[in-house]
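From the thread on structure requests for the teaching lab: each student submitted one protein with a one-line request. Submission from student K.M.:

"Model Glycoside hydrolase family 76 protein from Amniculicola lignicola CBS 123094, tokens only."
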Amino acid sequence: MILSGHLLPIIILSTVPNVLSQSLTDPTKRAESALSALHIWYNAGTGLWNTCGWWNSANVMTMVANLAKYDSSSKVQDLAKQIFAITVVQAPARNPQPGVEEKSAKKRDDGLNETITSESGYDKTVDELGEYSSVYPQGWQDVMSAWIDVKDLPIKKEGDPVNAAAAIPNPDDWLDGFYDDDLWWALGWIGAYDVTKNIQYLQLAEGIFMKVTKAWPTNCGNGGIWWSWRKDYMNAIANELFLSTAAHLANRAENKTFYIDWSKRTLDWFLKSGMMNDKGTINDGITNDCQNNGKTTWSYNQGVILGGLVELNKASPNSTYLPLAHKIAQAAIKALSDNNGIIHDACGPLCGGDASQFKGIFARNIQLLHAADPKDVYKTTIQKNADSIWANDRNEGNQLSINWAGPFIQTANASTHSSAMDALVAAITV
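Reply posted by the TA:
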């Protein structure tokens, strides 16, 4: 593997042989050791993680932010702040499809209804089985830049890495035409704000959210947002992220009422959309005639809404929000767990680059619900999965792969590793 512009690992546990780190039982030490292993994939030249995609990198950053919330060690704090500061400056140049929303908006304003195509080479599809696949521009996932000494980056020459980005970040830089991608980045920057209290990160998240409001409404129920600028699919993940981002912002931004309103409107539409089935789990989306499409109940679709409901209940308490979250969470644990309590997606164990991120997102949001209203079932689920990952899904370099039940499947990458780390981070708190 070629490392480009990476920050050197700073936690020496990554150099401990697997036979020794196998005995680690402290959740924080496990997460720190995994963080060192993860960081070999960080590319300071691009501000992204090699071996995973654009939206995946937003999730990796969110996981790092969550670890920094629960681990006060100076090494983790400093590393997280450096990642945020470098990413906000370097990553926009690697947006795989910038500006497509504006192009499509102009065509709609002209009253034209023809199909709008992108020439960027970036696309996301859902196959007949409901599995997602991202296709990147040619060469995008090759070595993304020449090696750059992180000390030579402008961001590292201007002092405090938290505040080194003097220019106000432009939300347009983070938009790629798929609204779920956009909102993953918004949540990532909210996480960065939570750790640093740098208002620019919060303002960036607000700006991204405001851009995505233009995707409202769909042609079903006069509400909801589309999956992409093509306006040809209404799926659960985009709308759950829209709800969750609004609710997160309601608890942090000045215009609280504005974000509460968006979150409540989205939840109301979502519950009427039919995406939730009679088992209490959430299918992938709805058809053009506004019916549940019966497609896969992905783990991340069961997860993101939990964090949204927790944040909405915090911003505007309501007796129905947490019970709804518990209903979804417990139905999902039942549906997704094997006989040993380990979470799997339908595509497992050999999921592609998109679905390999999903289980960690579920674990991350189960943790948020447990923190708000603890239940033994959540503690057990988090601990069982974290323990299994450490015991059965880890190689000699402390890299984490796709099958949380084990055995380790070659080859781990930044997506599989960070997803598994979400469960390790969640275990710190329970």
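TA comment: The radius of gyration is 20 Å. The chain is about 50% helix and 5% strand.
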